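Collaborator request, handled under Task 6.
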Amino acid sequence: MTRQSLVFLAGLFLYEASFGQDVLHQYIQEGFEKNQSIQQQALLLEKSIYALKEAKTRFAPGLSFLSDYYLAAGGRTVDFPAGDLLNPVYGSLNQLTRSNDFPQLENQRILLNPNNFYDARFRIGLSLLNPEIDYNKRIKREQVSFQKVEIDLYKRELAKEIKTAYFTFLQSVAAIKIYDMALELVRENKRINESLFENGKVNRTVVLRAENEITKFQAIRESAQQQSNSARAYFNFLLNRNLADSIVVDDSFKRTVAFYADSTTVGQREELQKLKIAASVNQQKEGLAKSFIIPKLSTFLDLGSQGFDWQLDNHTRYSFFGLSLKWDLFAFGRNSHTIKQAQLDNRIIQSQMDYLEAQLQLQYTNSINEFNSTLFSYESAISTYKASQKYHADVLRLYKEGQALYLELLDAQNQLVDSELQVTISLYETYIKAAEIERANASFNTNN
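Structure tokens returned to the collaborator:
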């Protein structure tokens, strides 16, 4: 980049740094607040934050209430020989006491399935060792970072679109002013020609030609007005406003600029940041796949009551503590295949990052080259415009003195209008190209 282009580009950036609350900056902030896509991404970010909070709660103990009630008929039984065991003893006791206080018992057949039985309990559970929970929390944290980058990406692209649309609108407004100036010129030419015709110095054809020039520029101005209306509608669309809303015209972009040292920050592009986060997430997934070798340990404590016929007393209440261990030792290679997939995904993401970084660097280089080309056109247009001003003034003076033809005056007039239009077009094109450099370089501050 040449020193001259750096100087001009510096003015664009330093202007925003010095006048952070200017009209365009306020429009950009309004776009950030009202844009539907950014609002949707903000909601997705909020969702990701809650997902992260939910993942963190997996480390905390949980309390749940469990209840079971059973009715049973039939099924397996267990024979208990109560009569065979106790009747001889009870018979001897009755003889000794000379009474029948000890009755004879029947052998019992006990149903294994409990009938009319309830079990109600509170369970406190806590995971003591589970790497899956930790990896899940890390992945959720990366997803939050990913969503933040996604919002910055939307903001940066929207800022560039708003700037481009605003400069295009200013360009159309400036063109209308130039055509208004041209109309003043051709109306003045008509007045001069009418005066010359009345004095017999020109014929009627010259007056008619002057009238045709007025009609021509009126049509051109109307076309420019419609283009300006379209530019205004698109700008308001980006800000989610009524398409016909008025736009404040800021003329402060024509100014003296200062030099600054250029720096490349393509590596900070959100597109690259997203791939870096994706690589980090994939590394967590690889770690998760490898964690199968670590056993999972958890504990629980039950506090409840169980009994028959809804009985509730000191005999039915109970507490029950336990530890649970799960260790996956063999899964027919499923875990190793998952690890291989994650490793291949890492290589794919790295290849994508290398390719994308080269693309972004090419975009940045091309944007600088386009800016330099536009800046050269602007400087050339200024020289042409100055020459056209002098040429028009000389021809107009000679025409009034009768020393130049009307066709020469028309040619000088058209050159003047065209050259001033080219100055305006190339001027705002430099602003548009500067906005593209800012986008390619990721230098716009999306937080202000």
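The cover message to the collaborator said: "The chain has two domains: 3-66+129-441, 77-125. Residues 1-21, 256-261 have pLDDT under 50 and may be disordered. Please let us know whether this matches your experimental observations."
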